Amino acid sequence: MPAAADLMTLDQYAVHEDTDERYVTELVRGMLVQEPRPGGVHGSLQVRLGRWLSEWADAQGARVTAESGYILAQDPPTLRGPDLAIVLDARSGEGQVGGWVHGAPDVAIEILSPSDRSSAIQEKTLDYLAAGARQVWIVDPSARTVTAFEPSGAARLLREPDTLAGGVVLPGFSLPLAELFRDLR
Question: Which domains does the chain have, with CATH numbers?
Answer without folding.
Answer: 38-180 (3.90.1570.10)
